[in-house]
Design a protein that fits this description.
The protein has 526 residues and is mainly α. It is 78% helix and 1% strand. β1 and β2 form a beta hairpin.
Length: 526
């Protein structure tokens, strides 16, 4: 593996893994408390807009994060801190105004996002959206601080920071159980906005922790300098088109949820399934892509396109090697994963069956999701944002069509025009198709940016990796069929542990034999 990746993968992977572990425990608590029902459905719709801004503005690998990394990396701490302050003030004013606008129009927004929700769900979602609106201005500084910390090679805090919100949510649920042991706490969970209050509190704590760290490393400077106006303008020049481009991608979430509102419990099922996928995918994204961004920016400033091309090709190979493994793993062990993680309390057998089908559909799209993410970040790093914008816009149009078509192409007073009605699974498959098309467009357009990928060689390696995953999955599924008598959680847990180890070993050696695996194992490092 490239030496730059080696130096940063461990700290990022460790921090992100802890964060994802906390997120997993949070989802277990949410599943036990709410199951697949109206309360969690309502929260997922209420969280769409604040969550959208937290991802676009405040997320790791988001446009704001990438722009700050690109601009602050070559600056010294004094000038970097001044630029950070100037951008923070302007961005905060904009986001506070937006939060006020959303607060007073929350009912209308929920009606637009989920027209087919029940009246009860819409009321709960509206109330929760009002609680969540302060997260919007907080997301601005969180995104800025992620970029500032990473520009100083401080990756660990950025990776572990999302765990704060997860731990806060767990605390709120535990607290509610303690104070409502003698009462029926369904009313508490439904009408008090517990999840919304927990999310807001966690975001606020995250903001305080990060501003403290920014001050500690010397980047919090309450000064202005007009001589650095060009650097500030450069950040906004990168943020605006990149945010619109990423925003267009996130609009697909709005579209999916719009169509999902026709299916009871769909929003909850999508949230649980997406979480199971995003947990390991987030580790991969941060570990493989995050360390590459400063390197891409350096190659771009040095005009070393050969070096950039070389490290990008290496990143692509590792991207597909790991994501194809994940796809096969989730398809093979979906039953054990859903049962062990969620099936308890309010999360019954019917909920588990729904999430299993959703999980398999999500798993199919893992390679295209991460590859698209890598390509888009590459364009951001070399400050070429026009084509990702155009491809994201095309993706929205395609997603509307495939969402509509794969749930039967319904038309009022006429019925379904399409013979293919896959329900909620069709909405996920639509995203898989769209991501694949966009990946192809982004890959071939790189040659216009003087980056030439060996597409045929990469395709050959991807096919061989897929073959290894198919053989591995077939063998493990055959073994699983002989162990159906293990119905206890302990038995399923042991089966998942030993099955995972077996699955990994087989995949590792198959990809080694096919010469598509460049990971090396050293005894001293073990």
């Amino acid at each position: 593996m490239h030496s730059f990746l080696k130096n940063n993968v461990f700290s990022i992977s460790f921090g992100t893994s802890l964060s994802k572990l906390a997120g997993c425990v949070r989802q277990i608590f949410i599943a036990a408390a709410f199951g697949v029902g109206v309360t969690y459905d309502a929260f997922n719709y209420a969280y769409i807009i604040p969550g959208f801004l937290l991802i676009i503005i405040g997320g790791i690998n988001g446009p704001l994060h990438n722009a700050v990394v690109a601009v602050l990396t070559p600056l010294n701490k004094k000038n970097g801190g001044i630029v950070l302050t100037q951008v923070s003030i302007k961005l905060s004013i904009l986001l506070i105004s937006l939060a006020i606008l959303i607060y007073f129009n929350s009912s209308l927004l929920i009606e637009l996002l989920a027209p087919n929700l029940s009246y009860e769900a819409k009321s709960i979602a509206t109330y929760q959206l009002k609680i969540l609106t302060p997260c919007i201005p907080l997301s601005g500084f969180i995104g800025l601080s992620f970029g500032a910390l990473n520009s100083q090679r401080k990756f660990f805090l950025s990776s572990i920071s999302p765990a704060i919100t997860s731990l806060t949510t767990i605390f709120f649920i535990l607290l509610s159980w303690i104070f409502n042991q003698k009462n029926d706490y369904s009313h508490f969970f439904t009408y008090t906005g517990l999840l919304a209050f927990a999310t807001l509190t966690g975001t606020l704590i995250q903001f305080v922790v990060q501003i403290s760290e920014i001050n500690k490393i010397g980047l919090l400077r309450l000064k202005s300098n007009f001589q650095l106006f060009n650097e500030e303008r450069r950040i906004f020049k990168l943020i605006i088109p990149a945010s619109i481009s990423s925003g267009l991608s996130q609009i697909n979430v709005f579209i999916d949820m719009f169509f999902a509102s026709s299916f009871q419990g769909a929003a909850s099922g999508l949230a649980y399934g997406n979480f199971l996928i995003q947990a390991p995918l987030g580790v991969l994204s941060n570990s493989l892509i995050l360390p590459l961004l400063p390197k891409f920016s350096k190659f771009r400033s040095d005009k070393d396109f050969i070096g950039l091309q070389k490290i990008l090709i290496s990143g692509i190979e590792y991207c597909f090697l790991t994501t194809i493994f994940l796809t096969a793993f989730f398809i093979t062990f979906n039953n054990q994963i859903v049962q062990l993680v969620f099936q308890r309390g309010s999360f019954d057998y019917s909920a588990a069956l729904k999430v299993k089908n959703i999980l398999i559909a999500y798993a199919v799209g893992i390679p295209f999701y991460l590859y698209r993410d890598l390509l888009v970040r590459t364009y951001y790093s070399i400050e070429k944002t026009n084509f990702p914008f155009k491809s994201s816009f095309a993706g929205i149009i395609l997603n509307i069509f495939f969402d509509w078509f794969l749930i039967g192409a319904p038309i009022n007073n006429i019925g379904n025009l399409s013979p293919y009605n896959f329900g909620v699974v069709g909405i996920i498959l639509s995203s898989v198709i769209v991501n694949f098309i966009v990946c192809v467009l982004l890959s071939f357009n790189l040659r216009n940016e003087n980056i030439h990928l060996p597409n045929l060689d990469l395709l050959r390696k991807i096919i061989l990796m897929s073959l290894a995953a198919f053989i591995d999955s077939t063998l493990c599924i055959t073994i699983l069929k002989t162990t159906k008598n293990l119905n206890s959680n302990l038995g399923e847990f042991l089966l998942l542990i030993f099955g995972s180890l077996t699955f990994f070993v087989i995949y590792f050696f198959l990809t080694k034999c096919l010469k598509v695996n460049r990971f090396k194992v050293y005894k001293k490092k073990i």
